[in-house]
Amino acid sequence: MASTRDTQLRDCLAQEFGEEQAAQILELFCGSGGVELSKVRQSADNQDQRRLLHNSRGLRGVCQSVFVDDMAQTCLEIEKAAENSSPDWSLVAQLVTRLEGEFTEICSSISLGR
Predict the structure, then answer these.
(1) Contact call for residues 56 and 82 (beta carbons, < 8 A)
(2) How many domains does the structure of the chain reveal?
(3) pLDDT at position 11
(4) Alpha-carbon distance 72 to 102, whole Å?
């Protein structure tokens, strides 16, 4: 069963793009978003600050464009933790794990809510 958040996400997208396109957008997000998320994970694991910031900002933009605000906020928190001259890699790792959980939860409930 879809949560209230997922229903709101679907409604937002449907209002903006129409029902059919909203379903396609969510499908595309859950497909390609996983690739982008893996880039964030890899750059965090490698402690590659420049790539992490680039990948997180890109994913945040995608999340914002499809109204996935929780994930966009987590991306922003990752960026803040990584922007310092001495990034807090432990915090970054925790936030990336949270981001992965948010992605899984959204995409699981979307596929179940069809």
Answers:
(1) yes
(2) 1
(3) 84
(4) 10
Write the single-letter amino acid at 3. Answer: S
Both structure tokens of 80: 């803040």
**Helix 69-82 vs helix 49-65: crossing angle, to nearest 10:** 160
* Phi and psi at residue 6, to the nearest 5°: -65, -40
Residue 56 sits at φ, ψ, to 5 deg, of -65, -40
Q: How far is CA 103 from the centre of its chain?
A: 6
What is the pLDDT averaged over residues 62-77?
Answer: 94
Structure tokens that stand for 54 in this block: 């680039």
Residue 3: pLDDT above 70? no
Of residues 31 and 4, which shows the higher confidence score?
Answer: 31
Which amino acid does the sequence have at 6?
Answer: D
The boundaries of the domain holding residue 18 are 4-112
Q: What is the pLDDT of residue 1?
A: 44
Q: What are phi and psi of 10, to 5 degrees?
A: -60, -45
Identify the CATH number of the domain in which residue 88 sits.
Answer: 1.20.120
